[in-house]
């Protein structure tokens, strides 16, 4: 009797958890997300006191429904050790993030079919 009760309780718990995650996913994809704030306008060193400073590249415009690349370079004598990207809209997504020989590059997809959006790349550099 006891094993059957434990099995029934486990089944009910699983159903409740699955139903909760479906609700959470639907709430997440409601489509009414507010726009993201604009990225900082001051490109350059983000962490100047660090042994591995970060640099942010210029904003790149991604056309409606389009794809583009944002790139940022390390200063001379430095090499990239990490990086990433940032978009200015919840409808624009970083699809690729990879090092280049002298910096960092991100691929960006704009799923908004009515307006352009912007993106930028950032890189962490260290002495070569």
List the helices and strands and how they pair.
Elements: H1 2-28, E1 54-56, E2 60-62, E3 67-73, E4 78-87, E5 92-100, E6 103-110, E7 117-127
Antiparallel strand pairs: 1-7, 2-7, 3-6, 4-7, 5-6
Q: Low-confidence parts lasting 5 or more residues at pLDDT below 50?
A: 16-30
Our measurement of the CA-to-CA distance between the termini, rounded to an integer number of angstroms, reads: 69 Å
Q: What string, H for helix and E for strand, traces the elements in order?
A: HEEEEEEE
**Number of helical segments?**
1
- Shape, per Cα inertia axes: elongated
Overall number of strands: 7
Helical residue percent? 10-25%
Average of per-residue pLDDT values: 77
How much of the sequence lies in strands comes to 35-45%
Largest sheet: 4 strands, antiparallel
Radius of gyration: 22 Å
Structural class: alpha+beta
Description:
There is one protein chain. The chain has 128 residues and is α+β, with helices and mostly antiparallel strands. Helix content is 21%, strand content 40%. The strands form 2 sheets. Strands 1, 2, 4 and 7 form a 4-stranded antiparallel β-sheet that branches. Strands 3-6-5 form a 3-stranded antiparallel β-sheet, with no helix packed on it. Strand 5 and strand 6 (103-110) form a beta hairpin. The radius of gyration is 22 Å and the shape is elongated. It starts with a helix and ends with a strand.
């Amino acid at each position: 009797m006891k094993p059957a009760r434990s099995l029934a309780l486990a089944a009910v718990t699983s159903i409740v958890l699955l139903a909760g995650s479906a609700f959470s996913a639907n709430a997440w994809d409601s489509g009414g997300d507010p726009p993201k704030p604009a990225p900082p306008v001051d490109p350059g060193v983000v962490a100047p006191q660090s042994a591995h400073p970060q640099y942010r590249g210029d904003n790149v415009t991604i056309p409606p429904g389009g794809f583009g690349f944002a790139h940022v370079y390390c200063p001379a004598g430095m090499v990239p050790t990490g990086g990433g990207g940032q978009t200015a809209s919840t409808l624009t997504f970083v699809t690729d993030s990879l090092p280049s020989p002298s910096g960092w590059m991100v691929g960006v997809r704009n799923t908004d079919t009515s307006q352009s959006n912007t993106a930028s790349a950032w890189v962490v550099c260290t002495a070569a």
